[in-house]
Every structure is written in C-alpha cells, then in structure tokens.
C-alpha cells in the first residue's frame, strides 16, 4: 500500500505585506470563510509603515478614474465603506469635500471632462465659476473649479491597525521574506530572515513596493516591474489659508494628481506631492540609495522608455524637488497668498508604480493568480480608499485558489 504523506500546514492562507491592502485581504478572508487560518508576514515592526502610512490621508471620491476600471468601481464603493468603517470603529475621519481648480484656459476642457467622468461614475459634482471658488476657499484663485462633496480624510494607519485586530489573523511583524518554495502537491513554504519557515496552502502577495520581487520568488513572472516614485511634501505654516482640500486639474497622461493642498484630520495642511524617481524602493529622500535596487530599475526597459517619453514632465518634477522656489511657484498658481517661508519640509512617501516592458504606466489595479498564489501587482493611490473592496476581491480569488488546491 502506498503511504500518502500528510503535510502539516501552519496556515491555510499566508499574506505577505502588512499594509492596508494585505490587512484588508486578511480581514475579508476570515469574514467570507470563518475558520480559515490566515497568517500575515510584515517585515517592519508594525503595520502601515510605507504607502499606507505615508500619504495625504485622502478618501478619494473616484472622479479621476475611467468608468469601467477597477479604480473607479472600487474607489466610489470604497469611499463610502471607508467612512462607514471609520465611524463604526471610532477612527478619526471627516467628509470635507474638495475643489479641483483650473488656473489656465488650457485646463478648462480637462476640467469639463472630469465633470462628465464624475457623473458617469455616479459622483455628485458642482461646477463653479471663478468668482464662486471663494464660497469654499476664500484664498484660492482660479478660472473655474468643480466641487466634489464626497471626498474626505482619515487616519489610514489607524484603519490598518483596526483591520489587523479585527481580522483574527496571526500577524507576524519583523518577518522579512527571503525565500519561497512552491510545490504543487506540497503548498507553499516561506523562509523568513530570522530562519522561521511558514507553510501554507496558498500565498497572497500584497508586498507593495516589493510585490514584483515577491512574485519572482514564487517562480511567477509578474510581467511588470515596480518603479518607485517619491512624493515630497511640505506642511503649510499658515494652515488657516486652506479650509479643506484643493487640487489642480491633473494631466491624464500620468497617474499623479499634481501638487495639492490637503487639510488633514490633525488640522494641519499638507502641500504636495511632486513625483520624482526614487533611488531605492524605500528611498524617502535623495540620500537613500540602494545600488542593487537602482540597478534593477535601470535594467528594466520600461524605465528608460518612460524617461524618453516623458522627460519634459520629469524635468519639471525634478526642478520642484531641488528648488523650493519652483515648488512654491506651483502652489501659488492656486494659492497666491503663500510664499516660500510658509512651506515646512514634511515626511515623504514612495509610490509603488507598476511599469510594463514597453514603458506603459499601469493605470489600474492589477491582480493576477498563479499556482497556489494570488499577486496584487499594482495598488497605488487610491488603494487605501478602495482597500475594503480590493480586499474582498483578493479574498474571493484566494478562496477560489484555496478550493482548487
């Protein structure tokens, strides 16, 4: 008689990444399938240490995104769910509304296009003439604007902590993944930096800035690379100049929203971000350089194709990075009362932007399945806003993979 080896799994689902998407996924799995054993590995000492905890805290309405995209559907749905979640768990939040302001005639057609897109996405939008802007923001100037009432702000790091607590999952902090061994009949085994081995039936990759590297560790080809872009912020020394949220009209060729003004839940006003290439996956300032990571970015053909295609845009972002005067000029287009002395350097963030080999910036959420794996390969902003529906979608795919394993 043939002896069948019985595998001792430490968990059913192993989630790599303790940001808001990974923790939302764990939360969704345990609610959809009670009794499923979920473990989350996070290399940092606590949750939400990177993209989740280093952004402007905006609950996005979904107005910017293509109506048939995951970003549009999940942001619109996620904004309402995030506000409800924050209220239920007593997490700091506020529904503030925001202005999107056109300061040049060339921006007016794009502003009108946003009105139409917002209506297609089911978002209430009010169009404003230049003189009506002062109803919302007395110090802001522009030719025209739109007001989006459903936008808000919250403490996304607080949301991540509550998801971790409410998920019932085992959360292991300080657990850096160094190796993955995947075998069809044996599941997935992960080796951490401290020598622990965790065995699971299915692995879910929510590693954010390192998601493509984790995908390759599993043996799956992600078909993209993360190219990190640093977003640099200032805080406004005179926060009374801004009541709520004020954005420029974005360039549709890029996934970045431009330098904007955001009154956070603490009452302070963030100004930024600009977007410059980071010299490391976690390169939060110009002094952080990791040659191996930088070399891998430069070896990816898509990175060079971006540079060749969009060098003028990039040059402007770099100029604002190294010149506070240039940054101030960008802010003054909407807020003429500000001067350089009003801008105080603040914590930067890094956006994990997926780029294809041909230089295409992936502009939607990207989730792919492999053998016993599910990979979240592009989840920058508005992923925090959309994290609850993203988590449910990843959970749905994970449970399907688990059922067939």
Q: Which key terms come to mind for this protein?
A:
405 residues; FAD/NAD(P)-binding domain; D-Amino Acid Oxidase, Chain A, domain 2; 9-stranded mixed β-sheet
What is the straight-line distance between the termini?
A: 24 Å
Helix content, binned percent = 25-40%
**Structural classification:** alpha+beta
Secondary structure tally, helices: 10
What global shape is seen? globular
Name of the CATH first level of the largest domain? Alpha Beta
- In the CATH hierarchy, the architecture of the largest domain is 3-Layer(bba) Sandwich
Give me the CATH superfamily of the largest domain.
Answer: FAD/NAD(P)-binding domain
How do the SSEs run, as a string of H and E? EHEEHEEHEEEHEEEEHEEEEHHHHEEEEH
User: Could you name the CATH topology of the largest domain?
Assistant: FAD/NAD(P)-binding domain
Low-confidence parts, pLDDT < 50 over ≥5 residues?
A: none
**Could you give a short account of the major beta sheet?**
9 strands, mixed
Proportion of residues in β-strands: 25-35%
Overall pLDDT level = 94
Radius of gyration: 22 Å
């Amino acid at each position: 008689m043939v002896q069948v080896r019985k595998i001792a799994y430490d968990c059913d689902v192993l989630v790599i990444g303790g940001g808001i998407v990974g923790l939302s996924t764990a939360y969704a799995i345990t609610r959809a399938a009670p009794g499923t054993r979920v473990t989350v590995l996070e290399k940092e000492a606590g949750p939400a240490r990177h993209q989740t905890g280093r952004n402007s805290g905006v609950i996005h309405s979904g107005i910017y995104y293509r109506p048939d995209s995951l970003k549009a559907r999940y942001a619109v749905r996620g904004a309402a769910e995030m506000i409800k979640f924050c209220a239920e768990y007593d997490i700091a939040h506020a529904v503030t509304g925001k202005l999107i302001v056109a300061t040049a005639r060339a921006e007016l057609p794009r502003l009108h296009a946003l009105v139409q897109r917002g209506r297609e996405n089911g978002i209430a939008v009010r169009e404003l003439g230049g003189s009506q802007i002062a109803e919302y923001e007395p110090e802001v100037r522009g030719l025209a604007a739109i007001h989006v009432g459903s936008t808000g702000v919250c403490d996304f790091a607080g949301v991540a902590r509550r998801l971790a607590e409410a998920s019932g999952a085992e959360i292991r902090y300080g657990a850096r993944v160094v190796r993955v061994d995947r075998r069809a009949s044996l599941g997935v085994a992960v080796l951490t930096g401290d020598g622990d081995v965790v065995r699971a039936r299915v692995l879910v990759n929510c590693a954010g800035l390192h998601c493509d590297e984790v995908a390759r560790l599993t043996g799956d080809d992600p078909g993209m690379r993360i190219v990190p872009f640093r977003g640099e912020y200032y805080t406004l020394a005179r926060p009374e100049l801004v009541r709520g949220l004020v954005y420029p009209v974005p360039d549709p060729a890029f996934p970045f929203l431009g330098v904007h003004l955001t009154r956070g839940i603490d009452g302070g006003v963030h100004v930024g971000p600009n977007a410059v290439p980071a010299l490391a996956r976690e390169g939060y300032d110009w002094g952080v350089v990791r040659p191996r990571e930088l070399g891998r970015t430069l070896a990816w053909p898509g990175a060079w194709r971006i540079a060749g295609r969009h060098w003028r845009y990039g040059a402007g972002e770099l100029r604002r990075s190294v010149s506070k005067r240039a940054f101030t000029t960008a802010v003054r287009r909407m807020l003429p009362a500000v001067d350089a002395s009003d801008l105080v350097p603040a914590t930067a963030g890094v956006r994990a932007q997926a780029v294809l080999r041909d230089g295409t910036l992936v502009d939607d959420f990207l989730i792919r399945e492999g053998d016993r794996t599910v990979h979240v390969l592009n989840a920058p902003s508005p992923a925090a806003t959309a994290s609850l529906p993203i988590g449910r979608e990843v959970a749905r795919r994970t449970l399907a993979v688990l059922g067939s394993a």
